[in-house]
Design brief:
Layout (H helix, E strand, L loop, with lengths): L1 E2 L2 E14 L2 E13 L2 E2 L4 H8 L14 E4 L10 E3 L2 E14 L2 E19 L6 E4 L7 H7 L4 E5 L5 E17 L4 E12 L3 E2 L6 E3 L4 E4 L17 E3 H4 L9 E13 L6 E11 L3 H8 L8 E5 L2 E2 L2 E2 L16 E6 L7 E13 L2 E20 L20 E26 L3 E14 L24 E2 L6 E10 L14 H7 L3 E9 L3 E2 L19 E2 L20 E2 L27 E2 L3 E14 L3 E10 L39 E9 L1
Parallel strand pairs: 5-9, 15-16, 22-25
Antiparallel strand pairs: 1-4, 2-3, 3-7, 6-8, 7-8, 8-11, 9-10, 10-19, 11-12, 11-13, 12-17, 14-15, 17-18, 18-23, 19-22, 20-21, 23-24, 24-25, 25-26, 26-27, 26-28, 28-29, 29-34, 30-33, 31-32, 34-35, 35-36
């Protein structure tokens, strides 16, 4: 792979003292960033070499993808050219009036998102689940995929976005013990616009695709004629397909010194904070469709013969409804988070102790569902059961997800003389949500059953219930002003003095994960794989090892008999698995990073900094999550590798880094 980063930025700032009690700060900034990357292979050449037929797309620097159950997928990424230009204007005014310190400000921005991307699926994605032979790699050798898909390249991106925020706040010092803070912020949540109208959505009322009025001239002439495409004005949609929102976010806080002293302080606060979504939605989710699009083909065996196989792993055009499209509720709400906290800080002798409760509640979170997914039923799946037969999948983004987080935080700090500083803390958290981030970085997961969101509420996989940290910084007691060698000769003090030793330790619970199965559709909804039935607890109270991390016998493929919970021919029971998400936890993480550093003054103009970093100094193993796919007979429940993180990430084997930097 090849990647080339290009960045340019500049800032103009003007601070003006209007009066002794009023100061104005103005800043204008502009930045340009481009991070193109591609692989040197050309997909059309690969198809020609291996003999796969049915794709005539020209030369792009990407490659086809093969998904084989039990074997890692080929790790290609999009071929991407993505220049982004940002302009930002900020103006803040600070005013002091008696006991009030007031601030007012405006923050405006303009962003241009250009470029184009080519997905690996441009040259086909081929899935071999083992449904025909019982083993994914055997299906691959036979050349009989379960599904294949092809993506038509997207047109160049040409999106423009505007942001605006205005705020006012006041810090009011009531007396020596009590300080109040309160304020409000206005935000303009405006959707992106497309310079040439090359964005689209889906209208569930009519089954049509909706585009901006000026996008008609850019439609792909090869897009299926049986799919209706109408303009936003004809569909009654906003011009940019999403509504604009005007939002107000209040916030208040206080700090109170208890007992009239300086050693006990109680603090609290509440605020509402918005979550900008239009950048990602416009630049990623609303591209393609009638300007490009994707096609999925589902295989089947008829009279002992597959519908398609290599070297021609696609069906004839128009033989089935194959288009996958995205859609967005035009009245999509802006997600926001309410956050509150209450903190007690107490100094006990030379130790600073802090105990805090932190709570958040997020609403209007984005989630996705397949509008073309029929209800689970014992009736075998057929195209006629779809609500919109001319489409395959319709992934529709809506708002309505929630998340609640509650945590107890305890921390302590201590300083020993002038040489040693130490801090440690513990967080105990519970984080529940029905909208996991998995599946898409811009619009949340696709839920299992579009008719039942209640079963999605579970532990958030990104939050660990327990986390302990500790860090320290120790100046070695040698050299000038220290306990040892304070009066030594200058060269000795210069070489042996000034060394600092630092350490960071983290211990945290294992990450939540979800058991799964693949290759079967017991719900008869064309949903292959998913969450299994939970017939036991699944957790191992003892005897857990990297070879058997959880009780695999506690999960079954829906439709399999009780004596064979993982079978090769489950019955079409017309339902999804009953197991919840994130009910198991992986290995905990233990990491200790250390650093040794020293600055050498070389005269008045030069300084040499020496730094030795050791990540995972104890070389404690940090294991990956186990294989949770119960269909992977023989490897399910096993851990096959360690995490390999960057230096300072407290994961991966021990890494040592030595750096020298000359400052002048």
């Amino acid at each position: 792979g090849v990647q080339r980063r290009q960045s340019k930025a500049g800032v103009f700032s003007w601070n003006h003292t209007i009066s002794p009690t009023m100061v104005n700060e103005f800043r204008f900034g502009a930045s340009y960033h481009n991070n193109p990357y591609w692989i040197e292979a050309v997909g059309s050449d690969i198809l020609k070499d291996v003999g796969i037929q049915g794709i005539s797309t020209g030369p792009y620097n990407t490659a086809p993808v093969f998904y084989i159950t039990g074997v890692s997928a080929t790790p290609w990424e999009d071929s991407l050219y993505n220049p982004v230009t940002n302009y930002q204007w900020i103006d803040n005014v600070s005013i002091t009036r008696g006991k009030h310190l007031m601030k007012f400000g405006v923050d405006a921005g303009r962003v241009q998102v250009n470029g184009e991307s080519t997905r690996p699926e441009t040259y086909g994605a081929y899935t071999f689940s083992g449904i025909y032979s019982g083993f994914g790699y055997a299906d691959f050798l036979l050349g009989i995929p379960q599904t294949t898909s092809v993506t038509i390249p997207n047109p160049p991106r040409d999106f423009r976005g505007t942001t605006l925020g205005i705020y006012a706040q006041d810090q009011y010092k009531v007396n020596r013990s009590l300080t109040l803070n309160f304020g409000i912020r206005y935000e303009l949540a405006k959707p992106y616009s497309s310079k040439h109208g090359t964005m689209y959505s889906f209208d569930p009322r009519t089954g049509s695709l909706v585009i901006p009025d000026k996008g008609v001239e850019k439609l792909n002439p090869l897009y299926p004629r049986n799919i209706e495409v109408i303009t936003a004005s004809a569909a009654g949609f906003p011009a940019n397909l999403l509504e604009t929102h005007h939002l107000f976010y209040p916030r208040v806080g206080f700090a109170y010194k208890l007992f009239g002293g300086e050693k006990s302080v109680i603090r609290g606060g509440y605020g509402i904070y918005g979550n900008a979504i239009h950048t990602a939605l416009g630049a990623q989710g609303m591209t393609g469709g009638p300007f490009s699009g994707s096609v999925t083909y589902n295989n089947a065996i008829a009279n002992g013969v597959p519908l398609f196989s290599f070297p021609s792993p696609f069906l004839s055009s128009g033989s089935t409804s194959t288009q996958n499209v995205n859609g967005f509720n035009p009245s999509l709400k802006q997600p926001y988070t309410q956050q509150w906290n209450l903190t007690l800080e107490q100094q006990i002798a030379t130790v600073g102790l802090r105990v805090a409760y932190l709570g958040t509640r997020s609403v209007h979170l984005l989630y996705r569902r397949n509008l073309n997914q029929p209800p689970a039923s014992t009736t075998p799946y057929s195209v006629s059961r779809r609500f919109y037969p001319v489409y395959n999948q319709i992934i529709y983004t809506d708002s309505g997800g929630t998340q609640s987080y509650n945590a107890l935080e305890v921390a302590a700090d201590k300083k020993y003389g002038n040489n040693l500083t130490f801090s440690t803390g513990w967080t105990w958290a519970k984080d529940l949500t029905d909208t996991l981030d998995a599946g898409s970085p811009w619009s949340g997961q696709v839920i299992q059953d579009q008719f039942d969101r209640n079963v999605e509420r579970t532990n958030n996989s990104t939050t660990r219930p327990h986390r302990i940290f500790a860090y320290s910084l120790y100046t070695l007691p040698f050299g000038k002003g220290q306990r040892f060698l304070s009066n030594a000769r200058r060269p000795v003090r210069h070489i042996l003095g000034g060394w600092e030793l630092g350490a960071i330790m983290v211990i945290q619970s294992g990450q939540y994960f979800t058991p799964s199965f693949s290759g079967f559709d017991p719900s008869n909804t064309q949903t292959f794989g998913g969450r299994p039935d939970r017939i036991g607890n699944g957790n191992l109270d003892s005897g857990r090892s990297i070879g058997r991390w959880f009780d695999t016998s506690a999960f079954a493929i829906p439709g399999c008999p009780a004596d064979r919970p993982v079978c090769t021919n489950p019955a079409a029971v017309g339902r999804f698995g009953n197991s919840a998400q994130n009910i198991l936890a992986g290995p905990r993480l233990i990491g200790l990073d250390a650093t040794l550093m020293k600055a050498f003054d070389l005269g008045e103009r030069f300084r040499l900094n020496l730094r030795l970093n050791v990540a995972n100094a104890l070389n404690h193993p940090s294991f990956n999550l186990p294989n949770a796919n119960i269909t992977s007979v023989g490897t399910v429940g096993t851990i096959t590798g360690q995490s390999r993180g960057a230096l300072g990430g407290q994961t991966g084997p021990r890494e040592v880094d030595l750096g020298l930097r000359l400052e002048f």
